[in-house]
Amino acid sequence: MKVYEIQTKGIDALVLTERESAPLGAGQVRVRIKASSLNYRDLLTVIYGGMGGKLPLIPNSDGCGEIIETGSAVTRFKTGDRVITTFFQRWLDGEITADVMRSSLGGAVDGVLAEEVVLDELGVVALPEHMSFEEGATLSCAALTAWQSMVVKGGIKAGDIVLALGTGGVSIFALQFAVMHGAQVIITSSSDEKLERAKGLGAWQTINYNTDPDWQKTVLKLTDGLGVDQVLEVGGAGTLEKSLTATRFGGMVGLIGILSGVGGAINPDAVLRKSINLQGIYVGSRAMFQDMNRALSAHQTKPIIDQHFDFDQAPDAYRCLEQQGHFGKVVIRY
């Protein structure tokens, strides 16, 4: 079968090669991958030649496809079922653990940028019936990250105000989930065109952070000086202090990404003084994934895909993500 391998650092070093199909064990399913979406984590893994694990490594965590073979003792799925891979193969429910961290696709173990994968039947979930393979491939990481931050940890409710930074995959899913729950969204971007698209999806207020670098002050003005109930903080060290300023007393900041870098000192004053819940968010469990999919199905919500690339164009897909011009998700289809 054809697979992409990370053998050394860099997008240009991504290698399309052949591997033998893996044997099928008890309780496992063989999935013919039809689509895979990209996350910033996948881009970093390719650029830096893995994340300290084994090489060669097949990248990407998010895959969607069709079960073409089942092993003995499989009870949850049958041949022909459409399924999505889970980011953490061993996070079924409950709290995250060190063992869970050792089961991440495309990081700790081989990922899904391959024609087929063999996984435990608990390592996949059913694709919502109203979605295509390409749409389903966007859910494993970005969607579930937004869901855990806003719903599981944040307890979002109607009337809440949410601040989403940027218009990448996590933030656009956050916008969709907030609208689903009757909450209001303030969203930022450096592009007025993207902000107009976000309004079309239901954003309440928009801020261009290039023309309004003190956007945290604007957020406070928009919320009558109170601040937002939740922030999806995808920027990291470069934006965290502004996000804390923009958060209300007793509010929550879901610390999700590192788009602006990982260095720098953070003043804890706002966290302490305002009793802010600063919560690290790393994707979610299988149980959360299934809950999220039920909500997506009930509302017939579809992911926003910005661009599609064919399997043999995979390096171009990573370059597209690197340029940060996308709105929503970038998908590779097979």
Briefly summarize what is shown.
Helix 4 (139-153) packs across helix 5 (169-180).
The domain count comes to 2
The CATH topology name of the largest domain reads Quinone Oxidoreductase, Chain A, domain 1
Major sheet: 7 strands, mixed
Encode the helix/strand succession as letters: EEEHEEHEEHHEHEHEHEHEHEHEHE
Instruction: Classify the helix fraction into a percent range.
Output: 25-40%
Low-pLDDT runs: none
CATH architecture of the largest domain: Alpha-Beta Complex
- State the total count of DSSP E strands: 15
What structural category arises from helix and sheet content? Answer: alpha/beta
Distance between the termini: 13 Å
**Which CATH first-tier class of the largest domain would you pick?**
Alpha Beta
Shape summary: globular
Mean pLDDT: 96
The proportion of strand residues reads 15-25%
**How would you name the oligomeric state of the polypeptide chains in this document?**
single chain
Number of helical regions: 11
CATH superfamily descriptor of the largest domain: Medium-chain alcohol dehydrogenases, catalytic domain
Description of the structure:
This protein folds into two domains: 2-138 and 303-333, Medium-chain alcohol dehydrogenases, catalytic domain (Quinone Oxidoreductase, Chain A, domain 1, Alpha-Beta Complex); 143-280, Rossmann fold. Strands 3, 4, 5, 6, 7, 14 and 15 form a seven-stranded mixed sheet that branches. It is built from eleven helices and 15 strands. Helices cover 28% and strands 25% of the residues. The model has no long low-confidence stretch (mean pLDDT 96). It has 334 residues and is α/β, with parallel strands linked by helices.
